[in-house]
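User: I'll paste a sequence; please echo it back and then give the predicted structure.

Assistant: Echoing your sequence first, then the prediction.
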Amino acid sequence: GFIQIISGSHNIVLNIIMGILCLLIISHGFVTMNVIRALPAWSSNMVLPLSLISGIWVGHQILQFILSFARPELVSGMEIFAAIFFFAYVLCIVLYGWGTFHSNEIGRESMLMMLKDKKLRKITLAGVGGLAIVLPLIFVLIMWGGSTNGFWVFLRMCFVIAGDLAIRYVIMKSALYQPLIARN
């Protein structure tokens, strides 16, 4: 990316390399978490797809916001991708929750902790439910036909980023430890 900025040209090979590196950076944190088998909420099969879709969804919102100033005519055309990424994101959240809940007893307790613990319940309901799902859904529906403006794109981007941080926080905080070796 830096080479392209300095040279002022866009090379397709560098774009592909940059895209691959972006996907690796997006998934790095969750890949690290995924190998820790003692925490079933972190080693769920849906952690990696959720991290990739999450990174693409948040990145798309930032790109759409930047383009609302630089090239506003492109923003309404990007809205179909916003809807697709949003529904894929929500699907990954649901599949993560379902898979973790049904993985084993510790996974089930981790998911229930999101609703039992007083602090986590607030973050789960307001952050995940409100900021990550309900409010972006409202903005996706408002802008469905391509009637976008920079302020709506900015608000949705803020809600998406805050909601994504809430999801990451509750996944990390609610993970309960499952000993790998049973004591007698």
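The chain has seven helices and no strands. The two ends are 56 Å apart (CA to CA).
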